[in-house]
Amino acid sequence: MDWTTPLKAQQTDFIQRLKSAKLLHCDEKGQHSELTVISGQRLDQLRDFCWEMVKKYKPTDPKNYFINNMKGKLGEEVVKSRLADFVTEVDYEKRVGGDGKVDFTLTSDSSIGIQVKARNGNFDKIQWSISQEEIEKNAVLVCILIQEEVSEAQAEYNLILAGFLPTNMITSTAGKALVGIDELLYAGGLRSYLESLTSSEADEYMRLGNECIEKEDYQNAFGYYTQVLQLKPNNEDAYFDRAIARYYLGDKQGAIEDFNLAIKFNPNLAQAYYGRGYVRDDLGDKQGAIEDYTQAIKINPNYAKAYHNRGVVRKQLGDKPGAIDDYTQAIKFNPNYANAYYNRGVVRNESGDKPGAIDDYNQAIKFNPNYADAYYNRGNVRDDLGDKQAAIDDYTQAIKFNPNYANAYYNRGIVRNDLGDKQGAIEDYNLAIKINPNYANAYNGRGIVRKQLGDKPGAIDDYTQAIKFNPNYANAYYNRGVVRNESGDKPGAIDDYNQAIKFNPNYADAYYNRGIVRNQLGDKQGAIDDYTQAIKFNPNDAEAYIGRGNVRDDLGDKQAAIDDYNLAIKINPNLAQAYYNRGVVRNELGDKQGAIKDFQTAANIYKKEGKETDYQDTMEKIRNMTK
Predict the structure, then answer these.
(1) CA atoms of 469 and 472, how far apart (whole Å)
(2) Three-state DSSP class for 453?
(3) pLDDT at residue number 341
């Protein structure tokens, strides 16, 4: 059925009511009615305007000029009162030659013109005239019937909105057309018809904008959505889509403004709350993000993505149980939600539930077999659990699906080294560095393996590169210090340990190793201070007690040395060196039996550990003492 059919039927009914004078009258601005009454001050203003036009243009027939102007203004007043802010009146005083044959344009689109014609007389006899130029310049003709004779003295006018007709339905002859009331469409459909003109154009802009979003052409998408909003200022979908374009263009605050407007025009638009929450999270407003995700869930209790993202923010805020609950809800409403399994796995691992983490990574991989991050993280957990080969397999899968996954090469290098495959480890570190030439951890890792392979200069070069790309890298300073000390560069080693401690003041091993070098350089008190710091930050470091005991012995504080050896033995009852050193000091103090007992315990441990040379040397010491 043609869209005009119902309006034609309504127009027939309207004409029948017009014959019986049964017309609806409504004075409320912007509301539809068929009858408009103009009188009083409102009429006086129109009358004054028309006389001003007479004075301005000084026509040869002032009375007729006034009446024609008055008819036109009365008709325009009807349209203004019924369409209100939907239309904008053309200021024809600013135009050369009048209104340019256009009385109104749509507020949202100035290219859509409306021509108003007003005539008085019997409705079944009069015709409204429109020129070819007016047909071409306007989208619609609106016809007004004036029931009274128009004159300067008339006190009231009863104006009837007789109907409208799209200009593309009007055919002119000899440059003009005449239209009767029975040819018009019912006036009640006027606004809907005008909206349809903008809607079709707006729909096209929306389509173009959506195409641009798919192509990631966010600048043009922004332009198209803006065009939609010029035509349809209350279109929440256009605000929502433009917010997305703004976000990807880097205008995050603008994105929030558009999400706000989308919510204003549709308070139940769950995805707008979701989108605003996403941007708020990016801007650091974590609590605001949670509130938005919560509102989205309130509107749509099955909104899996909103649960998921709220879980992400809760995890960032340290609420791990809340995050797990949200990820679980997301999975409940979307059992194939790979990201939700993955993120729940991350939190479970951080919470110590490594088997649960493995289960979640398995599910993530099940629903997304190419999920590189899930393989990588599962590899980390498997490594933690001691399943080294399985960890390597996972890192290899992560690399398969993301060949530029530098972290996966790095971690695989660590595990390969743990398993004794040092060359494989170096190859992995090389690839990690190739992908990311600034990868400080990879240089440090390669340095560790080179040092283990005896390539001390290569190790120092790698630690130096690691420090270059991360000047605060305490471990790299420490590792370089170890190699420098072994290479005989004790001042350089001290410098490196100093830097390691500067960037990690609680670095027990750095204090311990600096203590060793200070002792070697003759700085006994400095060595004791370092061993004491090492013990402070690692009270179970038996070696630090032994080191401090040795220096105290060197300084003649024999009892303090024995106290340190005692503490070392308490921490590790199988530490042969502690028994041996205590035996030496006991012997020096004259406690021969205590010394022999300590030497025997040390010898037994050396024997058990397969340290034959140490065993024989200790037994020889016992034999010499018992002669």
Answers:
(1) 9
(2) coil
(3) 98
Q: Coil, strand or helix: which one is 139?
A: coil
pLDDT tens by residue, 210-251? 999 999 999 999 999 998 888 778 889 999 999 999 999 999
Are 200 and 178 within 8 A, CB to CB? no
DSSP reduced 3-state for 118 = strand
What is the distance of C-alpha 214 from the center of its chain? Answer: 18
Average pLDDT of the chain is 92
Q: What element of type H or E holds 114?
A: strand 109-120
Is 87 in a helix, a strand, or coil? strand
Q: How many whole angstroms separate alpha carbon 518 and alpha carbon 531?
A: 10
- For 2, the 3-state DSSP assignment is coil
pLDDT in the model for residue 101: 86
Contact 337, 327 (CB under 8 A): no
Please report how the helices 542-554 and 558-571 are oriented relative to each other, as an axis angle in degrees rounded to 10.
170
| pLDDT, tens only, 144-173 | 999 889 988 889 999 999 999 999 899 988
Alpha-carbon span 50 to 48, nearest angstrom: 5
**In which element (H, E) is residue 131 found?**
strand 128-131
Total length of the chain = 627
DSSP 147: -
Reported as type and span, the H/E element at residue 529 is helix 524-537
The alpha carbon of 441 is separated from its chain's Cα centroid by a whole number of angstroms, namely 28
pLDDT at residue 606 tops 60: yes
> Is residue 126 scored above 80 in pLDDT?
yes
Both tokens of 403, joined, read 């060949």
Quickly count: other Cβ atoms within 10 Å of residue 9's Cβ: 11
Distances (CA, A) of 48 to 95, 158, 350, 448, 474: 20, 19, 81, 96, 88
Residue 476 token pair:
């790299």
- Give the per-residue pLDDT at 22: 63
- Counting residues of the chain whose pLDDT is more than 70, the rounded percentage is 96
The pTM of the full predicted model, rounded to 2 decimals, is: 0.70
Kindly give the pairing relationship between strand 109-120 and strand 140-146.
Answer: parallel
Residue 554 — φ and ψ, nearest 5°? -60, -35
DSSP per-residue letters across 283-344:
TT-HHHHHHHHHHHHHH-TT-HHHHHHHHHHHHHTT-HHHHHHHHHHHHHH-TT-HHHHHHH
Extract the tokens encoding 623: 């034999």
Q: Which residues of 116-128 are buried (b: 16+ CB within 10 A; e: fewer)?
A: bbbbbeebeebeb
Provide CB contacts within 8 A for 473, sequence distance 6+: 440, 444, 466, 467, 503
Q: Answer yes or no: are the C-beta atoms of 391 and 358 closer than 8 Å.
A: no
Phi/psi for 367 (5° steps) reads -90, -15
What is the reported pLDDT for 92?
46
**Contact yes or no for 614/606 (Cβ under 8 A):** yes
d(CA 397, CA 586): 59
Alpha carbon distance 350, 361 (integer Å): 14
Other Cβ atoms less than 10 A from the Cβ of 17: the count is 12
